[in-house]
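agent> fetching stored inputs for the magnesium ion docking request
agent> found them:
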Amino acid sequence: MQISEVSLQGFRNLEELSLQPATGINVFYGKNAQGKTNFLESLYLCATGRSMRTKYDWQMVGFEAEESHIRLLIQKNNRKERIDVHLKRDTKKGIARNGVPIKKLGDLFGTLYTVVFSPEDLSLIKDGPAERRRFLDMELCQLSRIYYYDLQQYYRILKQRNNLLKEIQKKPPLQETLFVWDTQLIDYGERVMTARRDFLQRLDIIAAEKLNALTGGLDQLKIAYKPNCELGQMAERLERNIQRDIYLGSTNFGPHKDDILFSIDGKEVKSFGSQGQQRTTALAARLAEIDLIREETGEEPVLLLDDVLSELDETRQRYLMESIDGLQAFLTCTGIEDVVKKYISKDNLFYVENGRITSENRIDGEKV
Ligand SMILES: Nc1ncnc2c1ncn2[C@@H]1O[C@H](COP(=O)(O)OP(=O)(O)O)[C@@H](O)[C@H]1O
Ligand SMILES: [Mg+2]
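agent> prediction call returned; pasting tokens
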């Protein structure tokens, strides 16, 4: 699939623009703080209904604007689709798919598949488990509405159970009603865990191949699901820890505490990998996502590459560019790396300056 037209108004510092991206790689070039990442954020918002940078929608409304509008036209294998997003400062955002407002975010998934590469991908490896769960959930939600629904239900019930645990501290006889939530929590929890396990098994195989290619066969990557409690054992865990849960007023076992383990040659990348290995691992995971989306949906995802080339050495730059050849990509950079030059034509180079995006083609200040 590809985006054939983007128009937006009042989104962050991008005041008003309309452009027709090319097939293949589109390069957005400009100095720092000009609006390049903002532009990618607007595309990501249309794909997922969320920003990749903030959970507060109002932050994306331009400082000077009353509201923001973004419209994407998407060309798929055999049909066209349209996404409209409307952000306001003080009310909920509106999203429409082909002109019809969607009621649940889940109804947006599947319209536009994206994979994002950014320097923050390193946090997938280096940060805490919450970051890795976010990665899992974003990927799985894009791929499966059922997962999105199960996950939502899981968190809803978890919240109710935690509220009840706090109530029980004050009124112990209420403990008798806990089983009502437990049955449902286990039910949705096990579904979430099963989906995560299956997804990671597939990601593991593909990412290992990518890493192999990236390192010339030197490093052997393993991605493993590290569930907080094993599948089939959630009921027992909850039962055994009930007094502790009541004492703490929160649920201490379940997929809300899951993690992913990345290891190279049997050693955890987070603790023992070099900075280079950490970066390559994150890159391999993102590249594997592309293949997974393609396998699962039959559609090619649109790629958002935010300032990633400067972080990679030449071999990895070349491998990345070759891997994404043939897909539509939106790539931002401050300086145009040599590896990119051979992909540039007058139709796919955009210059970003102070919130304006023009196809005034300049490289290093020179018009081309
Ligand atoms: N809601 C907003 N309205 C207007 N400008 C914003 C808003 N949010 C951020 N900005 C501005 O956007 C600029 C950063 O844009 P960004 O896309 O991150 O830059 P870069 O080109 O380096 O990727 C900053 O100057 C910031 O002040
Ligand atoms: Mg940026």
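agent> quick read of the result: The chain has a mean pLDDT of 94.
agent> awaiting further instructions
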